[in-house]
């Protein structure tokens, strides 16, 4: 008897669905692509034809299809909440792309809906299935650098922006931090536990940008953010993120009572640890190559994560609640930048939607 496969639907037929979700569902022997949906009917139909499945304009029709057991929600950020809640209420398992939503109220409602329905709800942070992220987590959990005291994270690069909506706050919820920084927010929570306090500044240095032939002016999402973080554990550090820049570079350093971790662009994970008998802090550094899989493989793994969790009824290693917590950190930083004051987490519910960052 052949093994049961998971019937999957994709809600939102844009760039990431085409590059990551559709090919990897089709590639997975335990999954079966049943249907796609997009508010752009022509795009839904063309995608359905290309991938050999049913196309709908309305995702409710996709959810009504009994062949669909699970969905990937790959619409723009502001549209995630409605689709995820409807999917949960229809009893479908869910992979939602990042960010989970653009408000904490929506994120909470999404997590609650999935919990109520008893469906699996995971997020689209593919780097969770890479090499360096889990390695850093292991180093920290094994106590190889002792008690963590401080960190410094830099993540900058020029963005070509996949679509105009990424630069429209009502659809994206924010700029560089909401789109890119949200991966770092997820990592920081995962590696070091919750952040207790943030104090941030943000700015819009670039006034206008051309995205896919559309000239966007009066941008209302930040392109540059710097934040000071204090973790509940007592560790502290800084985080700088920017995308209106000419070239990319990123580093993460974490210092503890027994050593340090340093990760730069493409040179693996560097570790100094007294726990490993490293003799001398100048000569004792070891380089762990940590060769990352291709991006398409990372996407394959995040989809496989949901497929296997449903079919084998195993726990998820990354949940909607993790996505919600990453969003909370980003929103706290936005709020601090707006107020010009430190902000304490957890955030109070019902905070107003913030004004755009200050244009410089
Ligand atoms: N994990 C990653 O590496 C990665 C990379 C890029 C984008 N993303 C995320 O994926 C999501 C989509 O990004 P994209 O680059 O594919 O955007 P996109 O603009 O290319 O595609 C979004 C699609 O969603 C459709 N859509 C919007 N609202 C809808 C609704 N209610 N029902 C059905 N379809 C709807 C749009 O018509 C569009 O076709 C975003 O959340 C983005 O942040 C993740």
Summary, kept brief:
The protein has 360 residues and is α/β, with parallel strands linked by helices. The protein has helices spanning 15-27, 41-51, 59-64, 80-89, 104-117, 132-141, 169-172, 176-192, 295-311, 320-339, and strands spanning 6-11, 31-37, 54-56, 70-73, 93-96, 121-123, 148-156, 195-203, 209-211, 214-216, 224-231, 236-242, 249-256, 259-263, 269-273, 286-288, 343-344.
Write up what this structure looks like.
Helix content is 34%, strand content 25%. It is an alpha/beta fold. The protein has two domains: 6-127 and 297-318, NAD(P)-binding Rossmann-like Domain (Rossmann fold); 128-292 and 325-344, Dihydrodipicolinate Reductase, domain 2. Helix 4 (80-89) packs parallel to helix 5. The longest helix has 20 residues, at 320-339. The protein is globular. The mean pLDDT is 94. Residues 11-17, 37-40, 43, 59, 74-77, 79, 83, 97-98, 124, 126, 162-163, 165, 179 line the site of nicotinamide-adenine-dinucleotide (NAD).
Secondary-structure topology with pairs:
Layout lengths: L5 E6 L3 H13 L3 E7 L3 H11 L2 E3 L2 H6 L5 E4 L6 H10 L3 E4 L7 H14 L3 E3 L8 H10 L6 E9 L12 H4 L3 H17 L2 E9 L5 E3 L2 E3 L7 E8 L4 E7 L6 E8 L2 E5 L5 E5 L12 E3 L6 H17 L8 H20 L3 E2 L16
Parallel strand pairs: 1-2, 1-4, 2-3, 4-5, 5-6, 7-12
Antiparallel strand pairs: 7-13, 8-11, 8-17, 9-10, 11-12, 13-14, 14-15, 15-16
């Amino acid at each position: 008897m052949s093994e049961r496969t998971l019937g999957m639907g994709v809600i939102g037929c844009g760039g990431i669905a085409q590059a990551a979700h559709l090919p990897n569902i089709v590639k997975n022997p335990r999954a079966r692509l049943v249907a796609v949906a997009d508010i752009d009917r022509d795009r839904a139909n063309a995608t359905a034809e290309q991938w050999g499945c049913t196309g709908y304009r309305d995702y409710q029709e996709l959810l009504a299809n009994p062949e669909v057991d699970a969905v990937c929600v790959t619409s723009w950020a502001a549209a995630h909440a409605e689709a995820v809640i409807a999917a949960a209420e229809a009893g479908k398992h869910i992979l939602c792309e990042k960010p989970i939503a653009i408000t904490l109220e929506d994120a909470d409602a999404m997590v609650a809906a999935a919990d109520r329905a008893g469906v699996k709800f995971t997020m689209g942070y593919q780097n969770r299935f890479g090499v360096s992220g889990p390695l850093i987590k292991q180093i920290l959990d094994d106590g190889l650098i002792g008690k963590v005291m401080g960190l410094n994270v830099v993540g900058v690069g020029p963005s070509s922006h996949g679509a105009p909506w990424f630069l429209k706050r009502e659809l994206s919820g924010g700029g560089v931090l909401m789109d890119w920084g949200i991966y770092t927010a997820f990592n920081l929570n995962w590696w070091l536990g919750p952040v207790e306090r943030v104090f941030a500044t943000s700015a819009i240095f670039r006034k206008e940008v051309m995205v896919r032939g559309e000239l966007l002016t009066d941008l209302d999402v930040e392109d540059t953010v710097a934040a000071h973080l204090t973790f509940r554990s007592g560790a502290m550090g800084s985080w700088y993120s920017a995308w209106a820049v000419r070239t990319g570079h990123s580093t993460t350093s974490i210092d503890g009572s027994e050593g340090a971790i340093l990760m730069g662009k493409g040179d693996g994970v560097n570790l100094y640890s007294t726990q490993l008998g490293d003799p001398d802090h100048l000569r004792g550094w070891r380089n762990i190559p940590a060769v990352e899989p291709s991006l398409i493989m990372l996407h394959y793994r995040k989809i496989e994560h949901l497929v296997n969790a449903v079919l084998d009824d195993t726990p998820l290693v990354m949940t909607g609640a993790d996505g919600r917590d990453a969003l909370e950190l980003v929103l706290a930083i936005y709020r601090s930048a707006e107020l010009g004051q430190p902000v304490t987490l957890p955030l109070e519910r019902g905070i107003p939607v913030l004004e755009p960052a200050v244009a410089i």
